Amino acid sequence: MAYETRDTKNISRISEALLRWYDANARVLPWRVAPHLRKAGQKPDPYAVWLSEIMLQQTTVASVAPRFFRFLERWPDVAAMAAAEADDVLGEWAGLGYYARARNLHKCAGIVADEHGGKFPCTEDALKMLPGIGDYTAAAIAAIAFGQPAVVVDGNIERIVARLFAIDKPLPGAKALIKERAGAIWPQQRCGDFAQGLMDLGAGVCRPKAPKCSACPLAGHCAAHRLDLVEDFPVKPAKKPKPLRKGAVFALVNAKGEVLFERRPEKGLLGGMFCLPGSPWAEKVSESPAHAPATAKWRRVGEVTHIFTHFHLTLGVNIAKAPKGFRRGRKQQWIAPKLARVPTVMKKALDLALKDRGI
DNA sequence: CATCCGTGGCT
DNA sequence: TAGCCAAGGAT
After folding, report:
1. Any idea which fold A244-355 has?
2. Closest nucleotide to A172: CA versus each C1'
3. In order along chain A (359 residues), what is the average pLDDT of each group of 10 residues?
4. CA–C1' nearest nucleotide, residue A144
5. Spatial distance from the CA of A282 to the C1' of B11 (Å)
6. Closest protein residue to B7 using CA and C1' atoms?
7. What are the extents of the domains in chain A?
């Protein structure tokens, strides 16, 4: 019992210190209701919280912010997004990466509109049933949008907790232990603010490299700091080298200056996105025009390189005018280059193909 | 539990 | 330059 009493006091000290820090240092973010406005009674919009959390998965605030505004402007609420064409959502997402998020975003909007009366469910379990919403996102929405006592663990909070308790078990095996420890310091009130405060702390103070412990409100509670081993936590496994893959793409241009694109299969890399037609990508691959969309006078203009999550890619880029009588396939589309909403690797290839043509 | 899935910025 | 990293989820 004596230990429980001491622990309880220590826990409340941690959450109080963090919340005090958050009140004074909260970042101003487009999707966030500032602490003082929250206290004045302003409620966050669950739709905006959901949209921001999906966009922020493995993606930086700087990349998300302009896209968040654009999405909110075009689809102000879940009903609007549910009514949108999937292709428009994918197009608006182009360049943001992890395109399954965009497909699931649209699916999720449809489910919320059709099966939940246009209102997001407020419990973690119900949220987790929706496509694109996993452990983290369900907890984040429940805590931030609905004020539920959910324990939110993202990469930042994982790092902070691993340091607070000097958890030397390596990730990802340590995730369960970290969640348990996080739960032990989680407050009953202001759970959303506590989560956002920890994320801000992780982004600006308890950083992976060069943490600013002198500015940390939790330094006095931090085991890693006490050991002077802050940067050694969390323990991560060695990363595997990324293999090299090669391929070729073919930019076919019609009389209007439009370029032929081809929709990728729904599943897998760049799923559902329009890309330049070309060869499969492999360690050794022929760049011959065998994989071109048409027989034409192909000219190789150069190559582009791109780094994906798990491999490096080099693409030979070819260009030709469409032969007379060419008919596009069912999965193919003529698109004006300026209107092409395509993945970044294809934007690179397109730009290179059209660069020296004066188009 | 391991693998797949993008991209841009920073060191 | 090469590596590391970011408010993860689905399979």
Report:
1. Nucleoside Triphosphate Pyrophosphohydrolase (3.90.79)
2. B1
3. 50 93 96 92 96 98 97 98 98 98 98 98 98 98 97 97 96 96 96 97 96 97 96 92 94 98 96 97 86 96 95 96 96 97 97 78
4. C7
5. 31
6. A97
7. 2-232, 244-355
